[in-house]
Design brief:
about 425 residues; alpha+beta
Length: about 425
């Protein structure tokens, strides 16, 4: 009883502490070049045994009525038409418990989705498991110094890359051992003290497009595209000629996965840097609820190479006051000066208002309309900047955005008000 009460008190204290902390996850890479053959075999076997255990748990008729022994030493494995008993030599009891609990949790999640009216299938048997939970820091894994870690069941100190990004003095919690594209990673969950960051006073409207991916109300147009590389096309061509599930086929599959992963990481880097720059300089950002799925049906590859949908979803999550303007709002047809609505064809890149004579770039006009409509939605007033302030902020943003690889930022200016800065 004393032990249970101590655990309850510790959990309660931890929950109170976490209220004033923010969670951040770091991913570090295991350096394969410093692993001996025994450690490499142990890592391979950890994921193989995790697959055996997961499939064994999933094969049970009623998982919730069974009392699983977390110290289970062997499991039946299907080999062609027969079952063989395989020993679990490398998975520790903590790891087995985590895998079993995660499988049961996944089934409960599906059950909850079904009860809410969603159409669901059943969990399928896996040909490979790509992650192993490491719940207890200090037992299942431990950080030794800035270059080495220890994983339960592996004798060798494991050299890693990326530990220096974890700041000193943070609370280290659970981790996850990952296998991606033939390499091993460790995902480390940390808790840090919340910082009271000041909210920037800036306001920004963003118009998304295809020829110019983003147009901002400070007069900047952002263009970028990460197309499929020639190397990837060659790999796919060679991959199509190999015998399915052969050793060379599997090696080529891993190479293709790595190339796709590199392209996705470049897109993610661009997305994070753009959103971070906008968030740090503007407390309120207005954007339209774009029908990205419809864009994908018409311009699939263009949307794939820009990840506009990812930028929109990240803006919703990260910005202090994100304002989403209704999808049906005619931002392209509306004049940002007088509010006049008129028809404009797709090939007209300059907006000329027939009522007030306003002449400006089509996308720049749309971004201003989106900002005006968004501020009206939340009952805020647009802050007017002086020409000197506009020029200063535009030049600063241009320098930063053009320093990001693959991005081309230029000034889109209102005719007759200020000259191009790019």
């Amino acid at each position: 009883m004393i032990k249970n009460e101590t655990i309850k008190a510790t959990l309660k204290a931890t929950k109170e502490k976490r209220k004033n902390q923010t969670c951040r996850v770091y991913e570090i890479k295991i350096d394969r070049s410093h692993l001996n053959s025994e450690s490499m075999h142990a890592l391979d076997m950890l994921f193989l045994e995790a697959k055996w255990l997961y499939n064994h748990v999933l094969s049970q008729d009623n998982i919730f009525d069974l009392d699983f022994d977390y110290k289970i030493q062997e499991v039946p494995v299907k080999v062609k038409d027969f079952f063989e008993i395989r020993d679990l030599k490398y998975l520790s009891s903590h790891m087995r418990q985590s895998i079993i609990d995660r499988t049961i949790h996944n089934i409960r999640g599906l059950c909850e989705l079904k009860s809410n009216g969603h159409k669901i299938g059943r969990l399928k048997f896996k040909s490979e498991v790509q992650s192993i939970p490491l719940k207890q820091y200090g037992n299942t894994y431990k950080i030794l110094d800035k270059n080495n870690i220890r994983i339960q069941g592996i004798k060798q100190k494991i050299r890693v890359r990326g530990l220096k990004q974890i700041p000193a003095g943070v609370d280290i919690a659970n981790g996850t051992l990952l296998c991606k594209h033939g390499d091993y990673y460790l995902s480390v969950t940390t808790y840090q003290t919340k910082k009271n960051a000041s909210i920037p006073k800036g306001q920004m409207g963003v118009d998304f497009g295809l020829a110019r991916q983003m147009t901002l109300t400070n007069g900047i147009g952002i263009q970028y595209s990460i197309p499929i590389t020639g190397k990837l096309r060659k790999l796919h061509k060679r991959f199509s000629k190999l015998e399915e599930h052969s050793k060379n086929w599997n090696k080529m599959r891993i190479k293709i996965d790595k190339e796709y992963s590199h392209i996705n990481n470049v897109k993610k880097d661009i997305k994070c840097k753009i959103v971070s720059h906008l968030k740090d300089n503007n407390g309120t950002i207005c954007f339209q609820d774009e029908n990205v799925k419809a864009w994908q049906r018409i311009w699939g590859r263009k949307i794939l190479s820009t990840a506009i949908g990812g930028i929109i979803s990240t803006l919703k999550q990260k910005v202090h006051t994100p304002v989403e303007v209704d999808r049906m709002y005619p931002s392209t047809k509306t004049c940002s000066r007088c509010g006049n609505i008129q028809e404009i064809s797709l090939d007209e890149r300059i907006y000329v208002c027939k009522k007030c004579g306003n002449i400006m770039d089509r996308d720049y006009n749309s971004s201003n309309c989106i900002l005006n409509e968004g501020l009206k939605k939340i009952g805020a007033v647009r802050t007017e900047l002086t020409p000197a302030e506009i020029e200063s902020s535009t030049l600063t943003s241009l320098r930063y955005l053009n320093s990001i690889p693959y991005i081309k930022a230029s000034s889109v200016y209102e005719s007759g008000s200020f000259t191009a800065l790019a």
